[in-house]
UniProtKB/TrEMBL annotation:
This is Glycosyl transferase. Residues 204-370 form the Glycosyl transferase family domain. The keyword Secreted does not apply. Pfam families: Glyco_transf_4 (PF13439), Glycos_transf_1 (PF00534). Residues 38-197 form the Glycosyltransferase subfamily 4-like N-terminal domain. Gene3D superfamilies: Glycogen Phosphorylase B (3.40.50.2000). It comes from Haloarcula rubripromontorii. It comes from the Archaea. The lineage of its organism: Archaea, Methanobacteriati, Methanobacteriota, Stenosarchaea group, Halobacteria. The keyword Transferase applies. One of its GO terms (molecular function) is glycosyltransferase activity. Keywords: Transferase.
Length: 405
């Protein structure tokens, strides 16, 4: 048994149940191992009105059965782009060590759900208590590192240099992390999905409930309604996508391009579509189990969880060949890879699968087999995370064989 303090600002709370589900699932999986967890999810100090005012209703603690979460407050100034790496970061990194010291016993290790704010905020506590630190290296910060301000890069580099282990969801991100640090210390820690949780055996019944004909080809998108997720390319491709008994479902819970997407759909020749907001996990798994094709024309990614979910639900994938996606999708075997920012290629790939149901089924079957054979599940994620933690606790570093070369 070992004790870990975890900071995961991007984690659900009682009023934001879909925020940071990947962190929740990671910690839930870790809690099934021999790790004893104290989890901190800092929240902005709530203003009386306006953005984030609802945070005043979040309790100080919440028990998720797998782990209890503490919700201390820090000063979070808007606009975020101006203050994220300055005053808000300073408030976070001053609050977090004091809160941990006052509420928990000294742990064996600290773990950060993100490099910033979590990892940067844990560095002072770990340094003063001589405790090892591990951080999750995720796509947005690492993919955009060299485009960030000098202040931002300095804080991220300081965090990664101090950390004893950097756990990235893809090889592409691990290589970026190792290029940033003085000493390579990044390894791959995949997320995953559990096929048994996706009701593919009930697809016909689910389609009847959702009002989708059995012969209709259902194309699904799940992600933010943002430029980065390729929503503009989807809009551009709509009129070139075949309309012979095709339906679309779009699922997201953030992003400012939802209105534009709706307008383009209304103006297109497509009539069968749904643009959804904040679908609960159970409902989302039903959509994945029902979909024939999953599309994700992203500009940058780590290894997106939505592709793992597509594989778990035996759904063929059409996605951009960027970042860690080619590590998941085998072109022409589990899906089709296309160039980023190419709406014509997106339409061509979708049309080829719309017209060939046997090919879709073959790719879906291959995708599930690949997921299972690679061990891309949350259970395997939790076991590997615990193993990596214990290596650092016992040896002071990751085994050389674990570090991505």
């Amino acid at each position: 048994m070992y004790d870990a303090v975890v900071s995961a600002m991007n984690h659900p709370d009682p009023f934001n149940p879909y925020m940071g589900l990947f962190n929740f699932r990671s910690l839930k999986a870790l809690s099934t191992t021999d790790a004893s967890l104290d989890v901190v999810t800092p929240r902005p100090r709530a203003p009386p009105i306006g953005p984030y005012s609802e945070f005043s209703d979040i309790p100080s603690r919440h028990d998720y059965s797998s782990h209890e979460v503490h919700y201390p407050r820090f000063l979070y100034l808007l606009p975020q782009k101006l203050f994220k790496y300055t005053l808000s970061s300073k408030s976070f990194s001053e609050m977090l060590p004091k809160y941990i010291s006052s509420n928990f016993e000294t742990p064996d290790i600290c773990h950060a759900g993100h490099i910033h704010y979590d990892g940067f905020g844990l560095v002072p506590y770990c340094r003063s208590n001589e405790i090892p630190l591990t951080v999750m290296g995720r796509g947005k910060i690492l993919n955009n590192f060299y485009d960030l301000s000098q202040i931002s890069r300095r804080k991220i580099r300081e965090t990664l240099d101090y950390a004893d282990g950097i756990f990235c969801v893809s090889k592409s991100l691990a290589r970026i992390a190792n290029n940033i640090t003085e000493t390579p210390k990044a390894t791959v820690l995949p997320n995953g999905a559990d096929p048994s949780r996706y009701p593919t055996d009930n697809e016909a019944a689910i389609r009847r409930e959702l009002g989708i004909d059995q012969d209709t080809t259902l194309i699904m998108f799940c992600g933010g309604y943002t430029e980065r997720k390729g929503v503009e390319e989807i809009c551009d491709a709509l009129d070139n996508i075949r309309n012979d008994d095709v339906a679309f479902v779009f699922v997201g819970h953030y992003g400012d391009l939802r209105t534009e997407l709706l307008a383009e759909l209304k103006a297109s020749h497509h009539e069968n579509y749904r643009v959804l907001w904040e679908v609960p996990p159970l409902g989302l798994r039903r959509w994945f189990a029902t979909a024939d094709i999953f599309m994700l024309p992203s500009h940058a990614e780590g290894r997106p969880n939505t592709i793992y979910e597509s594989m778990a639900s035996e759904t063929a994938v059409v996605a951009s060949a960027v970042s860690g996606i080619p590590e998941q999708v085998v072109d022409e075997e589990t899906g089709l890879l296309i160039p980023k920012k190419d709406s014509d290629a997106l339409a061509t790939a979708l049309n080829s699968l719309i017209s060939n149901s046997k090919e879709r089924e073959r790719m879906g079957t291959n995708g599930k087999e690949r997921l299972v054979s690679k061990g891309w599940t949350w259970e395997a994620h939790g076991q590997r995370l615990a193993t990596l933690h214990k290596s650092i606790i016992n040896d002071g570093h990751l085994p050389a064989a674990e570090v991505l070369g």
